[in-house]
TrEMBL record:
InterPro entries: Asn/Gln-tRNA_amidoTrfase_suB/E, Asn/Gln-tRNA_Trfase_suB/E_cat, Asn/Gln_amidotransferase, Asn/Gln_tRNA_amidoTrase-B-like, GatB, GatB_Yqey_C_2, Gln-tRNA_amidoTrfase_suB_CS, Gln_synth/guanido_kin_cat_dom. It holds the Pfam family GatB_Yqey. This is Aspartyl/glutamyl-tRNA(Asn/Gln) amidotransferase subunit B. Residues 350-497 form the Asn/Gln amidotransferase domain. Belongs to the GatB/GatE family. GatB subfamily. It is an enzyme of class 6 (ligase). Its EC number is 6.3.5.-. GO terms for molecular function: asparaginyl-tRNA synthase (glutamine-hydrolyzing) activity; ATP binding; glutaminyl-tRNA synthase (glutamine-hydrolyzing) activity; transferase activity. It comes from Streptosporangium subroseum. It catalyses: L-aspartyl-tRNA(Asn) + L-glutamine + ATP + H2O = L-asparaginyl-tRNA(Asn) + L-glutamate + ADP + phosphate + 2 H(+); L-glutamyl-tRNA(Gln) + L-glutamine + ATP + H2O = L-glutaminyl-tRNA(Gln) + L-glutamate + ADP + phosphate + H(+). Heterotrimer of A, B and C subunits.
Length: 501
């Protein structure tokens, strides 16, 4: 799709230093909209959750949703922000068909929360991301462009608009510029959005579904030549809707901008669109400056002046935040920083925790989620949490391995069966006949058969080359179709051959 020339990433990083910025929009999970009583749920039939206020019919007057203000303050507190003692909403004026008022109620120079930070871990190192502001606004409606090849307005036959989303409370979380990430810029961007999503999930303020758009990040990237201290012009890639895409968008913008700058060109300040299929961005529109929006204080709403005692109460009732929770779990599970980070990046911590809660040893729970199950999720191109298997089921498989009913190889087949929808672990074991051969007589019969067919290896073992028993154990496992207990088979083989270790 994109025909931009690019500079290979390594070369781009040798010559330029990236500066990041991230603006994340989060739809709050309140029952009603920001300034009216309409329901705020996702997926209702188009234009059914609307009223004179959110449709901006004459005479409609907004009133602020206190639950949304509370959620925003809690987000600010979790991000170590100061909370304004007094602030106002502002009108942001612009025309767009999915915004019935022709302005958006937002906040401008008086955000509800400001000057915070969020620490994230990348490659075992802590990176502090400074937060400039957290403010509250309302979402727009949703346009759908019909008839074109790309789903964009260019080339479409007609457009339809759904105002259900118009007026849903939206929190915008804006970082300060993030210099110094160097070649880890893509990973830092991803780690930040991952951590932020975790914080929001812990606060239970949003369902943070990136694919449904309830959380979406705009990714700002600029480059400055090595040795320069003057920041370059940034581009803003809009509405990136997965963690992986955040990482790829930064990567591709670095490569694209570096090629332009190296060629003596200049970067245009603009919004860009990210394309999942190519992993690249294309030009959107030139970026407005703040003055283009003609902000002014919203005259229909009173200022927000959160009571200091109320804010203190909200702070005291904060849940354990993800980073502290990870530190605690890391200690309980006894794993390294890097292992913990790998679990975090795979969104596996909650799954491992639930599996441990269901009775599995932490090491086993981690092994299955980060090994076999991660591999299968990768193959299917889905997150771990979408695999059709539960922490309880993994714990059951772990118990069967610990009790000697399964070995790892059989356990993998049980997992496969569960993932294929063949039922619970016990049902898969029964249906596929996966029990380990515990019947000593049956095992000895297989051993005799294997010894008869492998006289050379048997002789080697007898003459003291104990390592050769491996081939015989392999033969037993093969003859039993993986159902023998390899450890017990080895013992019996050595016994039979009259060799002791
Ligand atoms: Zn309404």
């Amino acid at each position: 799709m994109s025909t931009d020339t690019v500079m290979p990433y390594d070369e781009a990083l040798e010559r330029f230093e990236p500066v990041l910025g991230l603006e994340t929009h989060v739809e709050l999970g309140t029952a009603s909209k920001m300034f009216c009583g309409c329901q705020a749920e996702f997926g209702a039939p188009p234009n059914t959750n609307v009223c004179p206020v959110c449709l901006a019919l004459p005479g409609g007057l907004p009133t602020a949703n206190v639950k949304a203000i509370e959620s925003t303050i809690r987000i600010g507190l979790a991000l170590n922000c100061s909370i304004a003692e007094w602030c106002r909403f502002a009108r942001k004026n612009y025309f767009y068909p999915d915004m019935p008022k022709n302005y958006q109620i937002s906040q401008y120079d008086e955000p509800l929360c400001f000057d915070g930070y969020l620490d994230v871990e990348v490659n075992g190192k802590t990176v502090r991301i400074e937060i400039e502001r957290v403010h509250l606004e309302e979402d727009t409606g949703k346009s759908t462009h019909v008839g074109g090849a790309t789903g964009r307005i260019q080339g479409a036959d007609y457009s339809i608009v759904d105002y259900n989303r118009a007026g849903i409370p939206l929190v915008e979380i804006v970082t300060k510029p993030i210099p110094g990430t160097d070649r880890l810029a893509p990973e830092v961007a991803r780690a930040y959005v991952t951590e932020l999503r975790e914080v929001l999930r812990t606060l239970n303020v949003s369902d943070v579904r990136m694919e449904e758009g309830s959380m979406r990040s705009d990714v700002n990237v600029s480059l400055m030549p090595r040795g320069s201290s003057e920041w370059g012009t940034r581009t803003e890639t809009k509405n990136v809707n997965s963690l992986r895409s955040v990482e790829r968008a930064v990567h591709s913008e670095i490569e694209r901008q570096a090629a332009i700058l190296a060629d003596g060109g200049r970067i245009i300040q603009e919004t860009r669109h990210f394309h999942e299929n190519t992993g690249t961005t294309t030009s959107g529109r030139s970026k407005e400056e703040a003055q283009d929006y003609r902000y002014f204080p919203e005259p229909d709403l009173v200022p927000i002046a959160p009571d200091v005692a109320w804010v203190a109460e909200l702070k005291a009732a904060m849940p354990e935040l993800p980073r502290l929770r990870r530190k605690r779990l890391q200690q309980e599970w006894g794993v390294s920083d890097l292992d913990m980070e790998a679990m975090h990046n795979n969104d596996a911590i909650g799954l491992v925790e639930a599996t441990v809660a269901a009775g599995a040893p932490p090491a086993d729970a981690r092994k299955w989620w980060m090994g076999e199950l991660s591999r299968r999720a990768n193959e299917a191109g889905i997150p771990l949490s979408e695999l059709l298997i539960t922490p309880d089921q993994i714990a059951r498989v772990c118990a069967m391995v610990a009790g000697g009913a399964l070995n790892d190889k059989l356990a993998r087949q049980v997992l496969e069966g569960v993932l294929n929808g063949e039922g619970s672990p016990d049902e898969v074991v029964a249906a596929r006949g996966l029990q380990i051969v515990n019947d000593e007589g049956e095992l000895l019969a297989i051993i005799d058969q294997v010894l008869a067919g492998n006289a050379d290896a048997a002789e080697k073992v007898r003459s003291g080359k104990i390592a050769a028993v491996g081939a015989l154990v392999g033969g037993v496992m093969k003859a039993s179709r993986g159902k023998a207990d390899a450890g017990r088979a080895r013992e019996l083989l050595l016994e039979k051959l009259g060799v002791s270790e």
